Amino acid sequence: MNDGAAIIPELDELESEIIALFVRVADMLNLPRSVGEIYGLLFISTDPLCLDDCRVRLNISKGSTSQGLKILRSFGAIRAVYIPGDRKDYYVAETSLRKIAAGFAKEQIQPHVASGEDRLLRIRELLDDCESGNKAELTEKVELLENWQYRAGKTLPLLLKLIGK
């Protein structure tokens, strides 16, 4: 009684362990669990997979799958491949750690460093208007933050060059 649907194999032990490894990495990077699951599945897969393949194999929602694929694409951890005669988007995992790290830094870290500059300008304005009795100590703390921001601003571009932006 086959209704024409393809039978999707359950994850084997090797696939499950690879996926679990990438789930831990995603957790460490404060990314959604689905990001680690999808990357792990694509990493161990010998064939490109579409959104539905990932969703069914991992037993996750379409929304989580779509969001995970979007995040992975945004920092270059996966790429779309063309399958002749099929209108779906298929994906494969990028296996260059350099490309993934550079993409992650560019998408996830660089914007925070840039927004920190604006926040520090506002903090400096507030400090200038501050009439606290411990303004000297507060000024020291703000200068420390500015120093950290300066270092992050100088280190991140160097890091991106090292990992091959």
Description of the molecule:
The protein is mainly α and 165 residues long. The protein contains 6 helices and 3 strands, in the order H-H-E-H-H-E-E-H-H. The chain has helices spanning 13-28, 33-44, 51-58, 62-74, 97-129, 135-162; strands at 49-50, 78-81, 90-93. Strand 2 and strand 3 form a beta hairpin. Helix 2 crosses helix 4 (62-74). The chain starts with 12 loop residues before the first helix and ends with a helix. The mean pLDDT is 87. Keywords: DNA-binding, Transcription, Transcription regulation. This is HTH-type transcriptional regulator.
Quickly describe the structure.
Keywords: DNA-binding, Transcription, Transcription regulation. The protein is mainly alpha-helical. The chain has 6 helices and 3 strands.
Kindly list the characteristics that best describe this protein:
6 helices, three-stranded antiparallel β-sheet, single chain, mainly alpha, 165 residues
Helix count equals 6
Principal-axes geometry comes out as elongated
List how many beta strands DSSP finds.
Answer: 3
Q: Structural class, from secondary structure content?
A: mainly alpha
